[in-house]
Write a structure and sequence with these properties.
eight-stranded mixed β-sheet, 651 residues, 24% strand, 21 helices, 31% helix, GMP Synthetase, Chain A, domain 3, binds 5'-O-[(S)-butoxy(hydroxy)phosphoryl]adenosine, alpha/beta
Length: 651
């Protein structure tokens, strides 16, 4: 059975000639005598040629050249085989020589202080911490857990680990200490790097005091390094806890960069799966460097003078790849902001863009919908003419939010790069290039060198058929996960067992007649109503396209006759009041947008929905409430109070 796709978006937006002519990808095409987008995609099917060219394009400097570009023994791929490398050489050491006085980061704390960090300073700070780690006995292969907020010390700590060959495991600062403990235990980290606290929404969020609650159970931890951010009262345990500033004070400002194998582990990053236990996704030095830097260069078109702002927290893969490693490898300047987006007022982001002349903005659909709900007045207060390109990631963007972003943030001038990828893919996989005609709500086409397709349950291609199915990747890519930390069986089962030698993404998608990909949401979040499979995200998108709706979560509820019926939780925009009439209007709206089959049986108006700290609505929690089942792990919820709100709504 195929996933029914009923929501069709027809508008097309063409990039301007100016954008096309000045783009990095156009220059690459000209250099290789490639005259069209289609030809580019075709030429890149020679994977070894293409990715080796990409490595050159982003200036990768191997200590020893690779003997072979790709070795593919499904389900394990090795890229740049035999090469000696360390990602920190390209991200920091080399930049110290090339761009010593250029800004690597412009950082703003929530209270308003600003720190501008040059590549020269970054080099020195990374080396000092790396030397301190060595003094604590840390060396190649050791794990270090980092629980830091959005302050420059977070990239510094990651780079210091990588420089000496240690493996970092960053835990998002918004996670609970229980989530931290679980990840420390799984990775058996010897060191924890954290801070006293950080600012969020005008308050201090304590980190060290909370870490203290679990450290007695974290037996592998030998030392804790604490960065002083808020000067809030904390306890330091003699012989275990050390202040960052004190241990780096006397360290030399140079440190040898460990010579690694291209396929040695760079980091572990935990991500949730269908089970309660998080998966430790492993990425390596060489292929990951090539994958993230080349996508940033050619999708987001980074040039020397750009100011890049990826708003994601570094605790997620988006921040790892596109706030830390990729922009540094390209020698770019990035903005980093510590706090809440609406603090002290809803125009904080727009103020930052205006103040630092941000030229490329990369954010999430949930943020766009939030700003949309607040009204465009806040955006219009600021001069955003520095912007040239926009981007989104994390979930399908509903066409209404796309258009709002295009119109009010980009002033109808900036193409939007809707990038589909995952923690596991490490790099952007399906996305427009600046030369691609855009269809709002579609991530368009695979990046050159990425062979994505949609398969039905028997493994037949549904390419161009506009029928929903399983989104898969047919051949390896350079930033492909190396595996799951100490969970080889789960690696094989999760990604490689659905179809033979083909990577299974867990997402549903359809590919239209022009080869455009439309992501329909996770396959584990697909409804089956009277024999029709409908993507939850499609119903949500339809709801959001109604002028009264700000956010929506849609779940299935078993039904004797229909198999499943749809239950929708809806957050209304300011100025709209819940009523039976409005419910009926929404049902009719969905019938119009998608078809009668997708009309929810039940609609509940709520003030908030359960969300992760990255803003993703936790449908799973809504479903558990509707089905009256255990809620499962809710330690990653950003707003636990939303559980009660949803419960009360259905009572
Ligand atoms: C899942 C991966 C990759 C960084 C952020 C999330 C969904 C991601 C898109 C997009 C539709 C998207 C998919 C994917 N997703 N980007 N542009 N359009 N869906 O990383 O936590 O590993 O989540 O996010 O469902 O599988 P993640």
């Amino acid at each position: 059975m195929e996933i029914e796709s009923l929501l069709k978006e027809k508008r097309i937006f063409y990039p301007s000639n100016k954008i096309i002519e000045n783009s990095n990808i156009k220059k690459f095409m000209d250099k290789h005598g490639i005259s069209s987008y289609d030809e580019l995609l075709k030429k890149a099917k020679d994977l070894e040629w293409f990715w080796n060219e990409m490595a050159k394009e982003v200036g990768i400097e191997w200590f020893k050249e690779p003997e072979k570009i790709l070795e593919w023994n499904p389900p394990h791929a090795k890229w740049f085989v035999g090469a000696k490398y360390n990602i920190v050489y390209d991200a920091v050491d080399k930049q110290f020589k090339l761009r010593k006085n250029k800004l690597a980061y412009i950082w703003e704390g929530e209270p308003g202080e600003v720190r501008k960090i040059t590549y020269g300073e970054l080099y020195k700070e990374v080396n000092k911490l790396a030397n301190a780690l060595k003094e604590f006995g840390i060396s190649k292969g050791d794990r270090v857990t980092i629980w830091l907020p959005m302050i420059p010390e977070l990239p510094i700590a990651m780079l210091a680990c990588a420089k000496i060959g240690a493996i970092h495991s960053v835990v998002f600062s918004g996670f609970s200490e229980k989530a931290l403990l679980e990840r420390i235990k799984d990775a058996e980290s010897r060191i924890l790097i954290t801070a006293d606290g950080y600012y969020r929404g005008g308050n201090i969020v304590e980190l060290k005091n909370r870490a203290d609650m679990i450290l007695k159970d974290a037996h592998s931890i030998e030392k804790v390094i604490v960065y002083r951010r808020c000067d809030n009262q904390i306890k330091m345990k003699e012989g275990r806890d050390y202040w960052w500033d004190e241990i780096v004070a006397e360290q030399p400002k140079r440190c040898k960069t460990e010579i690694m194998d291209s396929n040695d582990t760079l980091f572990i990053l935990y991500t949730s799966g269908t089970t309660g236990k998080p998966k430790g996704v492993i990425h390596v030095h060489g292929g990951y460097a090539v994958g993230v830097a080349s996508t940033l260069k050619f999708i987001f078109d980074i040039k020397e003078e750009d100011v890049w702002w990826c708003t994601a927290d570094i605790g997620w893969i988006t921040g790892h790849s596109y706030t830390v490693y990729a922009p540094l490898i390209l020698g770019a300047t990035s903005v980093m902001y510590e706090g809440a987006p609406l603090y002290p007022k809803p125009d904080r982001w727009w103020e930052i863009i205006e103040k630092y002349d941000v030229s490329i903005l990369y954010t999430a659909p949930t943020a766009i919908r939030m700003f949309m709900r607040l009204g465009e007045e806040w955006v219009k207060k600021h001069d955003l003419s520095s912007l040239r390109l926009l981007g989104t990631v994390g979930e399908p963007i509903n066409p209404e939010a796309w258009i709002w972003y295009y119109k009010y943030v980009g002033n109808e001038r900036c193409p939007i790069m809707d990038t589909w990828w995952q923690t596991e893919t490490g790099m952007q996989m399906i996305s427009p290039l600046p030369i691609t005609p855009l269809k709002p709500g579609s991530a368009t086409k695979p990046f050159p060198g990425i062979e994505a397709d949609v398969f039905d349950s028997n493994g037949n291609s549904l390419y161009g058929k506009d029928i929903g199915g399983n989104l898969i990747i047919k051949s390896p890519w350079p930033a492909m996960l190396k595996g799951l930390w100490r969970a080889e069986e789960r690696y094989i089962k999760t990604y490689w067992s659905t179809f033979k030698d083909v990577y299974f993404t867990g997402d549903a998608a359809r590919i239209d007649k022009e080869g455009y990909f439309w992501i329909q949401g996770r396959l584990d979040d697909v409804l089956n109503v009277a024999g029709h499979r409908i993507g939850n995200a499609e119903v949500e998108s339809a709801l959001i396209s109604h002028p009264a709706v700000s956010e929506a979560a849609v779940v299935g509820k078993p039904h004797e006759v229909k198999g499943e019926v749809i239950v929708a939780f809806v957050v209304l925009k300011e100025g709209y009041t819940p009523s039976e009439q409005l419910k009926e209007e929404l049902r009719e709206h969905i019938a119009k947008e998608i078809g009668k089959i997708a009309r929810p049986d039940e609609i509940y108006f709520v003030d908030d929905l359960p969300k992760t700290r990255s803003g993703k609505i936790m449908r799973r929690v809504c479903r558990a409430i509707v089905l009256n089942q255990p809620l499962g792990d809710i330690s990653t919820l950003a707003n636990p109070e939303a559980v009660e709100i949803v419960k009360r709504a259905i009572e």
